[in-house]
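Researcher: I'm preparing a figure for a lab meeting and need a structural model of a single chain. I don't have an experimental structure, so a prediction will have to do for now. The sequence is pasted below. Please return the structure as C-alpha cells so I can convert it later.
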Amino acid sequence: MTNNITSNAPLSELTSLTFDELSVGQSVKRTRTLSLADVNLFAAMSGNVDPLHFPNGEDEAVHPEPIGHGMWAGSLFSGLLGTELPGPGTVLEKHEFEFIEQIPLGATITFQVTVAEKIAGADGKRNRVIFDCLCEDANGKPLLKGKTTVIPPKEHRSQKGHAVPELQFIPHDQLEMLTAKCASIPPMPTAIVYPCDRTSLQGACDGASLGLIDPVLVGPEALIKKVAEENDLDISKYRIVDAAHERDAAAKGVALAKDGTCGAVMKGSLHTDELMGAVVKRDVGLRTNRRISHVFVMNVPTYPKPLLISDGVVNITPTAEDKAHIIQNAVGLANVLGVETPKVAILSAVEQVNLKISSTVDAAILCKMADRDQIKGAILDGPLAFDNAISKEAAITKGIKSEVAGDPDILLAPDLASANMIVKQLSFLAHADAAGIVLGAAVPVILTSRADSLAARLASCALAVLLANAK
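Model: Understood. Here is the structure written out cell by cell.
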C-alpha cells in the first residue's frame, strides 16, 4: 500500500498502481506558485485571453488584480493522477469541480487527490476509482474542490518519467519599459524626414499618440498627404514643411534641429546616407566635437538586461581612437538608461592579444586607456570572443577572470559588418527587440530600417526623448 506523500518536484521514476493496490484514504499532494508563465501558457493553450488574467489588463476587469484561469488549477489534478496516484496508464473519465475562490497571480497553492471510493467492475465493465480533489491557499482556505472518476492502470509497473518539454516565453516589453521612463517628459518636437510611405508616417503618428514626439513632417506636402489618405492616417494636427525631394527634406529637417525648433531628427523613407550626409555636413549640419556613432539597444529574451551594441551603422572600420569615442557615446546612453557604471566587452575572435588580429590589439589599447582614465565611467575588458563575453560559464571554462565576462552592458564590435550581423542574428534568430539611435550629434538622430517593426521605431523614439531630456 502506498503511503500518503507530499511532492513538489517532477518525478524521475513513476509507478503505476492497480485497482487492488489502491485503498480508500490514500492521497498525494503538491504545492505550486501561480506564475505569469503559467498564465501565458494556459492562455496560449486554451485561447482564453480575458484581460483579468494578465497584468495591466485588470483595469478592464472586475477584479482588482490578475487572477489565474480556473481550469489551470483543475488541470493540476491531472498531473497528480497521471504521474503519482494511480500513476501512468490512468484514464480520466469524469471531472466535477466547484470553483470557490479566485487564485491571484503569485499565490502559492496546495492541491491534493484522495481515494474516496472504489467501484469494482461487473458485467465486463472496468474497475473505477473516485478521487476527492482539493485545492487550498497557503492559509488552508479552499479554492477549488470536486471529484474525479478514473479507470486505474491494468498492471503494476515502474518506469522513468518523461522529460518535461522545454518552453520559452519571449517577452517583448522593451517599448513598454522605455515609454514608462518617458511618462513625465512632454512630447518632443521631432523632424520626421521624408515620411513618404505608410511605415514611416504611421510611426510618426503612433509616436505622437504615445505622447513621445510632436512630429514635424518634412517632405513633399502633396505626397505626404496622399500617403496619409491612402492609409487612413490623421495628420491634420501636425506641421508639414514642404520639401522638393529626399535631399532637400534631409537639409530642411537638419536645419529645424540646428535652430532649436526640433529636439530630434527621425529618418523616414529616404536612404540612410542621404540623411546622414546632411547631419554630418560642416557648418550647416549637426556635428559636435564628439565622434558620431550608432548604438542598438537590444532586449534579448535569453539575456537578463538590455544589451547595447555598437557600431553597426555609422563607423565602417573604426580605429582604436574611434572606438574610444564609440565606447564613450555608448556609456553615456547606458547612464541615461539607468546603468551607473556599465560593463563594456570589447569583442574579437579570440580572448588573447594576437598581433595579427588588429581588433585584439585595439582591445588591449582601449583597456589601458580606461586604466589611464582616458575612457571614463565604465569597466572595460577585452579582447573577448562572443561566447566568453556573454557567458560566464564559457569564460570560466577558458580560465578568464573578469568583471565583464558573462555580464556586459555594452558590446563593442570590431567593425560595422560584425556589429550589424550580431544585431540581425539576435533579432531574427533570438527574437530580440532592437531600438537604435545615433549619438554624438547636436540632437539624437533616429535611424530606422525598412525592416524594423513599428514597436522598434517607437522604442527608438523613446530613446531619443530620454537622451534629449538628459541633455
